[in-house]
Hints:
The protein is α/β, with parallel strands linked by helices. The chain has seven helices and 13 strands. Strand 12 and strand 13 form a beta hairpin.
Amino acid sequence: MQVTVEAVKVKWSGEKTKQVMDWGVKALRVYDVWKETQGEGVNVAILDTGVIQHPDLVSNIKGGYNCTSTDNSDYEDRQGHGTHVAGIVAAANNEFGVVGVAPKANIYGVKVLGDNGSGSYDMIVAGINWAIENNMDIISMSLGSNQGSDYLHDAIKRAYAKNITIVCAAGNDGDTYDDNDIDYPGRYEEVICVGAINKYMERSWFSSDGEELDIAAPGEDINSTHLGNKYAILSGTSMATPFVTGVLALLISKHRKDPTSKTPIDTPAKIREHLIRTADDAGEIGKDNFYGYGIVNPGALLKGVDVSALYVV
Ligand code: CA
C-alpha cells in the first residue's frame, strides 16, 4: 500500500534575510500566546520525509529516525516536504526566515516516506512504534492513502493508549468522489483530522470533505523551510496538519506549566475535545463535512473556556 505526502504545489520563496510571519500565524494571532508558551518541552514526532538541519530549525531538532532504510540514523530529508512541515510547527523565532506556530517545541524527524515522497504502512507503523518508545507527546502525519489497514489502525490505537495525540491530514481529494473523501489514517477516530483553509478563511478547494474531519487550519500558500536552507511556498492539508500540531504543542506546554488548570488535558480524547470546543464555527452552522467543528482558534484554546460559565444566564 503506497502512502504519499499531501501537498500540491511548490514555489520557491527564496532565502530570507529578515524574519517574516506567514499569513496563518498572523491571521489566527498565534503570537498572542507566545508570552505564555512557545511549545517548550513538548516532543513532536513528524512522520514524513525526514528533516534537514536547516538554520531556522536546527535549534529545535532534538533527534530523528529513519524507518525507510537500514541506516536508521540517517533521517535527512531529500524531498523537502518533511522540512516544510517541521518549519510550520517550530521554525525558530529569530532574526531570519519564518517563524513556526510553536517556535520552541522539540522536533523529531521520523523518516517514514522515501525521497520520492511515498512510503508503505510498514514504515509508518515503524515510525509510530518509534514515537511510542521515545516518549513523544504528539505524532504529526501529513500523509495519507485512500485505503486503510488494520495493521496501521492497531499501531494508532497503541499510540493513543500511550497518551500520544495524533494529528493527520484530511487529504487533497477535494469534494470529488462521494460524501467522504477523507484519507487514512485521517479517517480513524483516534486521530485529529485536519482540513485546509485559505487566506480568506474559506475551505481550500483541494481539502477533502467528510464526516471524520475535525478541524480546519491554514494550508494554502504556506511559506516555510525547505531544502538547501531555503524557503518555499506549498499548499495542502499537509500544511494545515502541522499548524494544528503546533497549536496543540502550545496547549500541552502551557498546561504542564500550570497543573492547576481547570481544563485537564491528560488524554488525547480530552485534548481533542478541548480543540473542537474552542474552534470558530465556519460554513454551515455547527459541525459539517467541509470545516469539521470549525477553524482552530489558538487564543480561545489556550485561554480555556470555563465550562460552568456557559450555564450562567
Ligand atoms: Ca526564523
